[in-house]
TrEMBL record:
Protein name in UniProt: Endoplasmic reticulum transmembrane protein
Record-level GO cellular component terms: endoplasmic reticulum membrane
Function: May play a role in anterograde transport of membrane proteins from the endoplasmic reticulum to the Golgi.
Species name: Glycine max (Soybean)
Positions of transmembrane segments: 6-22, 43-64
Length: 139
């Protein structure tokens, strides 16, 4: 599971870097995210996020159980140390993955808003310049 979460984190980081800088892939990624947010896409992403939250809470519960067992015994078991490190890594990867998913969602939203504002500014400039040309030719 750690390998899958690591791959997921690397993919999410790549998406964030692509969305952060203007490049040819950015338009493609934005269009892909637009398509993902249509239809059943939001339902699927919310279901996956909820499942990841449940797995994260289960991992945190397991971590607290291991800590409690170590405190009750008074000595640290090497097996518990390995299990604890693995569970902490899983929890960190799950938490980072959920956070990066939110970052990607917000970046996509802001890019769409910026593009919409740019289009509105272009149309406003065109109408204003056309109006000025009409006024000048009318005088």
């Amino acid at each position: 599971m750690i390998q899958l979460l690591f791959i997921l984190l690397m993919i999410q980081i790549a998406f964030i870097l692509i969305l952060s800088f203007a490049n040819p892939l950015r338009k493609l990624v934005v269009k892909g995210l637009d398509l993902l947010k249509q239809g059943r896409g939001p339902l699927v992403t919310k279901t996956v996020a909820a499942t990841m939250c449940v797995v994260l809470s289960s991992t945190v519960y397991t971590i607290t159980k291991i800590q409690k067992r170590s405190k009750d015994a008074g000595i640290v078991n090497p097996t518990d140390e390995v299990l604890m490190a693995r569970r902490l890594l899983e929890a960190a990867f799950l938490g980072f993955s959920l956070f990066l998913g939110l970052v990607i969602d917000r970046q996509h939203y802001y890019i769409r808003e910026i593009n919409l504002l740019r289009k509105n500014m272009e149309t406003a400039k065109k109408t204003k310049s056309q109006r000025l040309l009409k006024e000048m030719s009318g005088n």
